């Protein structure tokens, strides 16, 4: 006597094809987005030398200069005068020649001349990449042309 097994109809309504497509797309995305930096460093390549290249002494880090309501300059939680700020900017440019960036965050109630003073010190320190921050965007204004 043959035994009849009742199959459920729930699995007949479940279509796995879109789910498999999504899994494959995610797999492709992560394969493409992954950097294979270690493999590229293993290759035996003789690199050319550039006479004008400057070594990267320390990792470039964006400096943040805050200007308060009355025009005082603050960096790393300390209030700095003009000479101290210029020295700090020059040291940062020396550590990262041509790569140093400065973010200027000014109180909206301060006079614009204090912000221009920070820009002027950046130019004196040979830092051309400085930006002024606003509340809506963190980086809004680009640097002046060289």
Describe the secondary structure blueprint for this structure.
Layout: H1 10-13, H2 17-33, H3 37-42, E1 63-67, E2 73-75, E3 78-80, H4 82-95, E4 101-106, H5 112-124, E5 129-133
Parallel strand pairs: 1-4, 4-5
Antiparallel strand pairs: 1-2, 2-3
Helix pairs in contact: 4-5
How many distinct helices? 5
Q: Strand content of the residues, in percent? A: 15-25%
The succession of helices and strands, N to C, reads: HHHEEEHEHE
Roughly what percent helix? 25-40%
Spatial gap, N to C terminus? 94 Å
The gross shape turns out to be elongated
Q: What's the arrangement of strands in the largest beta sheet?
A: 3-2-1-4-5
Low-confidence stretches: 137-146
Work out the number of β strands: 5
Q: Describe the biggest sheet?
A: 5 strands, mixed
Radius of gyration: 28 Å
Mean pLDDT: 78
**Structural class by sheet pairing and helices:** alpha/beta
Provide a descriptive summary of the structure in words.
By secondary structure, the chain is an alpha/beta fold. 37% of the residues lie in helices and 15% in strands. The protein has five helices and five strands, in the order H-H-H-E-E-E-H-E-H-E. The protein has helices at 10-13, 17-33, 37-42, 82-95, 112-124, and strands at 63-67, 73-75, 78-80, 101-106, 129-133. It is elongated. The chain starts with 9 loop residues before the first helix and ends in a 13-residue tail after the last strand. Residues 137-146 have low confidence and may be disordered.
Produce a short descriptive summary:
This protein has 146 residues and is an alpha/beta fold. 37% of the residues lie in helices and 15% in strands. It contains 5 helices and 5 strands.
């Amino acid at each position: 006597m043959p035994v009849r097994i009742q199959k459920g109809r729930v699995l007949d309504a479940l279509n796995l094809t879109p789910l498999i497509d999504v899994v494959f797309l995610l797999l492709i995305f992560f394969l493409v987005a992954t950097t294979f930096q270690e493999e590229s460093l293993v290759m035996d390549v003789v690199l050319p030398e550039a006479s004008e290249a400057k070594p990267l002494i320390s990792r470039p880090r964006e400096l943040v200069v805050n200007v308060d309501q009355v025009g005082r300059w603050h960096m790393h939680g300390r209030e700095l005068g003009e000479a101290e700020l210029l020295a700090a900017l020059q040291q940062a440019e020396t550590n990262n020649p041509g790569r140093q960036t400065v973010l200027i965050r000014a109180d909206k109630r301060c006079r614009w001349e204090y912000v221009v003073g920070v820009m002027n010190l950046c130019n004196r320190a040979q830092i051309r990449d400085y930006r002024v921050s606003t509340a809506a965007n963190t980086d809004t204004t680009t640097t002046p042309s060289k």
